[in-house]
């Protein structure tokens, strides 16, 4: 007759590795069962009719998807360049020994990091009411670059500040010993090294800007200036079907997936360099 002490060694003999393997096996089994259930319970003809109608896929692509994709890229790149320039200035101000510079940069960064990008776009649509006759150059591209770039610069500033602080102080001291001013040392020594280490997080910020560009619809655009989300929504409303939005989503993936792969490659290279 077995006793409780006889079964105790059996339970203790199960190593943590085997226990983890059993847990994973249970998780995978549950996942497979859920997938099988979804496959057999889903109404596939209805799903295709609502989300993947072949005729609407063709109409969406032929109706101007390429131009909307182009606008999305232009909006994003312009905002990113604006954000990099302003973010670099803010990062340097945040690290400055001059108090007012630090205070201004801190207020700007904290304010626009805490403010939803949608509100910033709404404010830009109302600016002509507050300043009659005001006109932003290259509108609507200039408006989008400013609105999206202002929000992006607040996030980019913190990324750039971290990259600057990661450069060894000895590099700055060596540059100053060669007769460089603090500005020259920052421009020629610190920033080039900092940006090399910041490439992965900066690319991540670029991906976020691609997705935030979907808020451009709020400022009101003519059809020739539609970005992907606005274009997809207009087509979906026209045909009362979700397929155009699905196609627009795939177009976003065409932009973001290569960038995500680039981030992983850069992070892997940075890990090897260490």
UniProtKB/TrEMBL annotation:
Superkingdom of source: Bacteria
UniProt membrane topology term: Multi-pass membrane protein
Annotated GO biological process: amino acid transport
Domain ABC transmembrane type-1: 69-263
Primary site of residence: membrane
InterPro entries registered for this protein in UniProt: AA_ABC_transptr_permease_3TM, ArtM/GltK/GlnP/TcyL/YhdX-like, MetI-like, MetI-like_sf
Cellular component terms per the entry's GO annotation: ATP-binding cassette (ABC) transporter complex
SUPFAM superfamilies the record matches: MetI-like
Subcellular location: Cell membrane
GO molecular function: transmembrane transporter activity
NCBIfam families: HEQRo_perm_3TM
Protein name: Amino acid ABC transporter permease
Organism: Mumia zhuanghuii
Organism ancestry: Bacteria, Bacillati, Actinomycetota, Actinomycetes, Propionibacteriales
């Amino acid at each position: 007759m077995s006793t409780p002490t006889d079964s105790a060694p059996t339970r203790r003999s199960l190593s943590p590795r085997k226990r983890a393997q059993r847990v994973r096996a249970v998780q995978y089994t549950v996942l497979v069962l859920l997938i099988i259930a979804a496959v057999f319970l889903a109404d596939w003809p209805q799903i295709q009719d609502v989300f993947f109608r072949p005729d609407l896929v063709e109409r969406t692509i032929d109706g101007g998807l390429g131009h909307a994709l182009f606008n999305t890229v232009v909006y994003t790149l312009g905002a990113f360049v604006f954000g990099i320039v302003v973010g670099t200035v803010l990062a340097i101000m945040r690290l400055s020994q001059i108090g007012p510079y630090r205070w201004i940069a801190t207020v700007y960064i904290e304010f626009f990091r805490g403010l939803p990008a949608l509100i910033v776009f709404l404010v830009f649509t109302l600016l002509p009411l507050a300043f009659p006759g005001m006109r932003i150059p290259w509108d609507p591209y200039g408006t989008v670059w400013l609105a999206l770039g202002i929000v992006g610069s607040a996030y980019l500033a913190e990324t750039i500040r971290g990259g600057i602080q990661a450069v060894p102080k000895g590099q700055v001291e060596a540059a100053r010993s060669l007769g460089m001013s603090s500005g020259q040392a920052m421009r020629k020594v610190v920033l080039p090294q900092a940006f090399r280490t910041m490439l992965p997080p900066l690319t991540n910020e670029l991906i976020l800007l691609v997705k935030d560009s979907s808020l451009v619809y709020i400022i009101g655009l003519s059809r020739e200036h539609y970005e992907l989300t606005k274009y997809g929504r207009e087509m979906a409303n026209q045909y009362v079907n979700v397929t155009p939005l699905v196609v627009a989503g795939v177009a976003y993936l065409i932009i973001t997936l290569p960038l995500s792969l680039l981030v992983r490659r850069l992070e892997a290279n940075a890990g090897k360099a260490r």
